[in-house]
Amino acid sequence: MKAAQVEMLFARLKAANPQPVSDLHYRNPFELLVAVVLSAQATDASVNKATPALFAAAPTPEAMAGLSEDEVAGHIRTIGLYRTKARNVVALSRALVQQHAGQVPGSREALEALPGVGRKTANVVLNIAFGQPTLAVDTHVLRVSNRLGLARGSTPLQVETRLMKVVPPQYAHDAHHWLILHGRYVCKARRPECWRCALDDLCPYKPKTPAPR
Known about the structure:
CATH architecture of the largest domain: Orthogonal Bundle
Radius of gyration: 18 Å
Largest sheet: none
Shape: elongated
Structural class: mainly alpha
Strand content: under 5%
Oligomer: single chain
Number of strands: 0
Number of helices: 11
CATH topology of the largest domain: Endonuclease III, domain 1
């Protein structure tokens, strides 16, 4: 995709959604971190159903660190891989208390050292909580980037690296939000809704999906 097309693509996404936000519900960096950890291989909707009771029981790293894994698991039982995630949430909370005075760190190295936190989770937290122009590549971003020819790659890291090179600086902070939301609600995996896509004329994906009758 040529630079002028990339510029047009993100200009359209911005025009449609000037201030994109995550679908996850959170009130502070700690809740954001926990919610993103819980969202791995799960939908944001399922996480949002589970976290209100969890955060009511443990609104801070100190409180979460004081819960047992079984107690956390009881709150997130409806989320996939809940036992592993409960273990990670308790462990990362203890690490925050012991190593970061109960604060979510603002560096990639420190975030990725926390239990259950990988590159994608770190990118989301750095972007939303700390305003950094990171690109979190999930299945939606991977799919949309390949279909559009924006940044082709078979792994999240490949796509992230290529996106960082082609996304215009003025769109960098919100780029991953726009691509995630576009993939979640328009450029869907099984049946992309090409008939209502604002990027249709820029997209080489074939065949285009016709509007339902």
